[in-house]
Design a protein that fits this description.
The chain is an alpha/beta fold. It folds into three domains: 202 residues, Rossmann fold (3-Layer(aba) Sandwich); 155 residues, Rossmann fold, CATH 3.40.50.300; 103 residues, Alpha-Beta Plaits (2-Layer Sandwich), CATH 3.30.70. The protein has 20 helices and 20 strands. The protein has a seven-stranded parallel sheet, sandwiched between helices. A seven-stranded parallel sheet has the order 10-11-9-12-13-8-14, with helices on both faces. Strand 3, helix 6 and strand 4 form a beta-alpha-beta unit. Helix 4 packs across helix 5 and helix 7 packs across helix 9. Bound molecules: adenosine monophosphate. The site of adenosine monophosphate (AMP) has 13 residues, from helix 4. Pfam families: DbpA, DEAD, Helicase_C. InterPro entries: DbpA/CsdA_RNA-bd_dom, DEAD/DEAH_box_helicase_dom, DEAD/DEAH_RhlB, DEAD_box_RNA_helicases, DEAD_helicase_DeaD, Helicase_ATP-bd, Helicase_C-like, Nucleotide-bd_a/b_plait_sf.
Length: 557
């Protein structure tokens, strides 16, 4: 445990839950977590005003898990979520935090999947039930006792649930639980309807709200981009091509994310390093010194590790992961625009985090303009501009120093000066894509607009747009085929696991593997068309995270 985990350690969580949180790489509790965890641990009812992106899931999951009795094999906590996507996400979060609590089981209950296995999982002793209201009511109709042992109830995104018309279902659910239960309600907004529910069904609830003082931000040009969570790395790489930065700090949420992004940037030739709470103090100082004197240009940091960082060279702050609250946003972007210079701050926003963006805009009193991801033409223009500015200063005296050599080489090779200059350019640019077609092939376009999420009820749509399963597939590069496996994030799979397995067992070179997209319930991998059948046969028995990969060619229609 690093000394930086002190923030979580002081909250009174069960030691095994604390251990799992630390293993997840969180360095310190977010504001909503700091305030909610002690209240929920104490058994109070609570109203938490917080939106997605503040860390609200852990704010209720960690204390509730700490209060679960693994020996009792019956539903002890019920989490209600407005949509299937959110229910799955919350269930996954519970599973992550319960990793070191043997005997704790989580079941997700939502519409569109068979009821039998869900009921079986509940009856088999799942202590945590994460459900959408409509489907849960269907279960109650079959077995009205199914919630009779619930001691903790959480209504997550309560305002969304009401917007989707779940009011009547909620009433049915409230009635099916013991009155002695603890009830916690999280909502981004507290309209009258939510207050009425709280009044009727919560007992002396404590209110937790993250105070957001108005903050002023000057001399910093702010912009945001909509991206999907799994496209962040490619979005960052594209942005870096066109943004003219001196030094840049990129903020992410976890230690692992600092390492992953720094490695991805280094692989592309950037002078980048990670800065997180696991890195020893003297090493951290070395990283900051290197950023100051130009041995490094990019630092990928967590909020904790970047505390107090003051490097005048920083022209850009990139919020790769959303900050938990507007204060930390203001704090982060204040790393640039130092010493009277102007700075630029970019914010990547996933569809579910749009609300957080609105809060930031409200608190800072400024609009954070939307920009589009640079297209291939913009990337190409930027590359040529860089090449021009690196060569222009050499032209003045190069002829004097190397002119004779040029004459000799053209004569020896028997080529024109243009042909030789072109060959030298090819060598100098190291195989970099420098035509539009090449750039397009290298970086398949990422769609800019974020699709919207369908709710559990047909015909209704929710505001959050994270439709991971229905997203339009990316265009395929020439010579590539898209393959699908039924393993996804919910199986504990990350892109690097798939990459590792395919590299090792398929005997492919890294370049042969294209985009890997990990969704909740499946993943897509781009592989070479040539020899695909043979490769799939080779991978027939490959297992990832203990499960059979079963990769198949995927047809979009
Ligand atoms: P939520 O607001 O619950 O949707 O959480 C947003 C994201 O923040 C999730 O990806 C969490 O895994 C992550 N997260 C939550 N708490 C922390 C923390 N204390 N440190 C780092 N990441 C966190």
């Amino acid at each position: 445990m690093t000394q930086l985990s002190g923030g979580f350690a002081a909250l009174g969580l069960h030691p095994n839950i604390l251990a799992a949180v630390i293993a997840t790489g969180y360095e310190e509790p977010s504001a909503i977590q700091l305030q909610s965890i002690p209240v929920i641990l104490d058994g109070h009812d609570m109203i938490g005003q917080a939106q997605t992106g503040t860390g609200k899931t852990a704010a209720f999951a960690l204390p509730i898990l700490s209060r679960i009795d693994p020996a009792k094999r019956e539903p002890q906590a019920l989490i209600l979520a407005p949509t299937r996507e959110l229910a799955l996400q919350v269930a996954t979060a519970f599973e992550t935090y319960a990793k070191q609590m043997p005997g704790v089981n989580v079941v997700a209950v939502y519409g569109g999947a068979p009821m039998g296995p869900q009921l079986k999982a509940i009856r088999n002793g799942a202590q945590i039930v994460v459900a959408t209201p409509g489907r849960l009511v269907d279960h109650l109709r079959r077995d009205e006792k199914v919630l009779s042992t619930v001691q903790h109830l959480v209504l997550d995104e309560a305002d969304e649930m009401l917007k989707l018309g779940f009011m009547d279902d909620l009433e049915v659910i409230f009635k099916a639980m013991p009155e002695t239960r603890q009830s916690v309600l999280f909502s981004a907004t507290l309209p009258h309807s939510i207050r009425a529910i709280a009044e009727k069904h919560l007992r002396n609830p404590k209110h937790v709200k993250i105070e957001t003082k108005t903050q002023t931000v000057t001399a910093i040009e702010q912009a945001h981009l909509l991206v999907h969570a799994d496209q962040k790395h490619s979005a960052v790489l594209r942005l870096l091509e066109v943004e003219e930065f001196d030094a840049l700090i990129a903020f992410v949420r976890t230690k692992q994310a600092t390492l992953d992004l720094a490695a991805a940037l280094e692989a592309k030739g950037y002078k980048a390093a990670a800065l997180n709470g696991d890195i020893a103090q003297n090493q951290r100082e070395r990283v900051i010194d290197s950023l100051k004197d130009g041995r490094l240009d990019i630092v990928v940091a967590t909020d904790v590790a970047a505390r107090g960082l003051d490097v005048p060279r920083i022209t850009h702050v990139m919020n790769v992961d959303m900050p938990y609250d507007p204060e930390s946003y203001v704090h982060r972007i204040g790393r640039t625009g130092r010493a009277g210079r102007t700075g630029r701050a970019l914010l990547l926003v996933t569809p579910r985090e749009r609300r957080m963006l609105q809060v930031i805009e409200r608190v800072t009193g400024q609009k954070v303009a939307e920009v589009r991801l640079p297209d291939a033409a913009a990337v190409l223009t930027a590359r040529i501009k860089k090449l021009t500015s690196s060569l222009a200063p050499l032209v003045a005296d190069a002829e004097a120093t190397h002119g004779d050599l040029l004459d000799r080489l053209t004569a020896d090779i028997g080529c024109s000066p243009r042909a030789l200059a072109a060959a030298l350019l090819r060598k100098a640019t190291n195989g970099q894509a420098l035509t539009l077609a090449e750039v397009e092939r290298e970086q398949p376009l990422v769609p800019n607009s974020a699709p919207r999420e369908r709710s559990e009820r047909s015909g209704e749509r929710s505001e959050r747009g994270d439709v991971r399963e229905r997203r339009a597939p990316m265009p395929l590069a020439d010579g590539r085929a898209r393959c699908r496996t039924a393993l996804g994030a919910r199986d504990g799979i990350a892109a690097k696991n798939l990459l590792g397995a395919i590299l090792n067992e398929g005997g492919l070179a890294r370049e042969a593997i294209g985009r890997i997209q990990v969704r909740d319930s499946f993943s897509l991998v781009e592989l070479p068309e040539d020899g695909l059948e043979r490769l799939l046969t080779k991978l027939k028995d490959t297992r990832v995270a203990g499960k059979q990969l079963k990769l198949r060619r995927y047809r979009e229609d």
